[in-house]
Protein 1
Amino acid sequence: MPFVNIKVTGGAEAPTAEQKAELISGVTELLQRVLNKNPATTVVLIEELSTDNWGIGGESVTVRRRKQ
């Protein structure tokens, strides 16, 4: 049973329900096509993280976005 965990930032730039559905469908299809995995047992989890809890280059994403 494949388990895929996708992490994205939440808030204003969070993916829509439609985008999440497309990610789940697309990842499931990719695992079936490339690895011959059974779609019925493929699990895809999408986690939305606060930009305060995600850092790049020593700064939170919140701080980096404010600077842009």
Note: The longest strand covers residues 3-9.
Protein 2
Amino acid sequence: MAYSISATTKGGRNGRAILENGGLALAMALQKEFGGNGEGHNPEQLFALGWSACFGQAILALAKKHDLDGQDARVTVALSMDKDEISFGFKAEIKVTIPGADKAKVQALVEDAHKICPYSRATRNNVPVTLTVV
């Protein structure tokens, strides 16, 4: 196994979440949109942060192949939740910009990054994703 991490939460969306090594602990709070006070973090925020960082790393790993400099890439993951027939489901838009770069090259890079990013792989065929080059 290359890497493993464990996190524990007590109290669900209105509780406290902590990593096993104590490196990060967060107060969690149900979003105002769902009737909570919103005075903490929620799992969707953490998911969007993780996905944007992971996707950014995929960009860095593949940029040279596309004759681009991935160091200036900005990756935004816009995550939304909607109620479906079972519960709630995600939709995502991944927006990537590399200032001054050719949009067609960036689009090809983004499509390749979406193939290798672990978050993208984990959500494939389950979360609708729109890839946008800005």
Note: Residues 43-133 form a domain with the GMP Synthetase; Chain A, domain 3 fold (CATH 3.30.300.20).
Protein 3
Amino acid sequence: MILQTAIILAILAGAAWGAFALWFRPPWAGRPRAILPAAWLALAMAALSGLAYGHSLPAWLSAAALLVLLAWWWLGVRPSNERPWMPEVARQTHGSVHGDLVSLHNVRNFEWRSATDYDARWETRVYDLSQLHSVDLALSYWGRPAIAHAMVSFGFGDGQYVVFSVEIRRKRGDKFSEIGGFFRQYELAVLASTEEDSLRVRTNVRAEDGYLYRVQMPEDAARALFLSYVQTASQLVREPRFYNTLTANCTTIVYQLARQIVPGLPMDYRLLLSGYLPEYLYRLGALEGANSPAAYRRAGRYTDRARATLRAEEYSRNIRRGVPGVTAT
């Protein structure tokens, strides 16, 4: 009885996983999307029927064979940098380091007027690490308080800011699906951009809610974190990876990079529920200038300031007004 129950549970789990995998990552393009998942579920039901009518061995063997076949196909699914990408992720950031100078290629600096009306600009910019003076965490919310997109912005003495964002590389026609992110539906990219692009498009075009937090960290740690982003972005150009909703998303990548700089960083549920990252940073003592996470949130919300700023050259200064830990200039 215990063995039969275990077999039934294994078939049900395999049926669910296989249906999702075939739905979100179909092996053949241009086919009706529901055919393969429906066929897979029908085969699973046939195996369960065999168990119900006393044909346990044939049912178990056929289910196992089908799972092996599906796993063989799944292991052959490989990430690629050669797909019909959406324009905003059409290029990948990569960089080279020469002493204190870092040259970043394909820094996105789009001028957004709407989600479909924009001027596409990809630029090469040079950053002097000896002038690196600030690290800010930007969180952008679009609905649920527990989920936000996390970006890290580095500020330099010459007035430049560069934002690193772990992005889903969506193909033309793709729609975002958190479940699809578990099933290799998207590739992963680490994208560098200007604040007038990646922060502004979220508040002013996509109607998201933006918050900024000044992160206090030693200069050598900030420098190492910046270089880790450059290295990760460049490596993804050479070796593409899949995005994963749980293990390779915007927050977990930040944690993996920061852990290289500060060994022993504690794991925490807020690394998965990215909307609560400020509480995690507060616990680590990485925020200064306010006496509670709630106070940081109130003062760090820059949505209204962003929407009121029309001139690009004033954007970075205006969104930092009143942010705890930011020295007024």
Note: DSSP finds ten helices and ten strands in the chain.
